[in-house]
Design goal:
Elements (H helix, E strand, L loop, with lengths): L2 H4 L2 H22 L3 H27 L5 H25 L4 H23 L8 H19 L5 H31 L1
Helix pairs in contact: 2-3, 2-4, 4-5, 4-6, 5-7, 6-7
């Protein structure tokens, strides 16, 4: 891969998304007013928009790189982690989701490297995609509906935990089957 491939437009957008994470965290945790809260959401929206656009630009203009295929999901997971972490400050019960999420990501990272080393590649499974969508929707709903009843946030938290653990079990079974061959 050439040096210019690290700095094509989609990869620059990936770097930008990673740089927006601390901006979002600081804005969210320091928000004392509705306007400051909206600034945090604005930072997050900029990140989400670039996430939406980077893959489309890469495919449309033939800028897909191996590095970009790694950078994009890392930026996704770091953003999800940041959102879940800041939500723990407002809703302490979200710690249970944060723990499930971190365990899931650690497992997927370790197994991804293990399988890659053995040249075993496969795409994301439906349950992984459903998990990502559920986490994104759940966290964004809690962020957008800042004054939602705690009970509603607890239900969303429970759904995110259940879906994350379901995907973890499904991936463990898949990996066990693949490894045992």
């Amino acid at each position: 891969m050439q040096k210019k491939d690290y700095f094509n437009i989609p990869n620059i957008m990936g770097y930008f998304r990673i740089l927006m994470i601390p901006v979002f965290i600081v804005f969210y945790l320091r928000a004392d007013s509705q306007a400051e809260y909206y600034m945090a959401l604005g930072a997050l929206c900029l990140s989400l928009i670039t996430d939406f656009l980077d893959g489309r630009i890469a495919r449309k203009y033939n800028m897909v790189t191996s590095f970009g295929k790694v950078l994009d999901p890392i930026a996704d997971k770091l953003t999800q982690l940041a959102i879940a972490a800041v939500l723990v400050f407002r809703y302490p019960f979200m710690l249970w989701f944060l723990v499930a999420f971190v365990l899931y990501q650690i497992y997927m990272g370790i197994m991804g490297l293990y399988l890659l080393k053995r040249n075993i590649l496969y795409g994301a499974k439906w349950y992984g995609k459903v998990t990502t969508a559920t986490i994104d929707l759940g966290c964004v709903a809690i962020l957008l509906l800042r004054n939602m009843p705690v009970h509603a946030a607890q239900i969303i938290n429970g759904v995110m935990i259940a879906v994350t653990l379901f995907a973890l079990v499904k991936y463990i079974r898949l990996h066990w089957t693949v490894i045992k061959g």
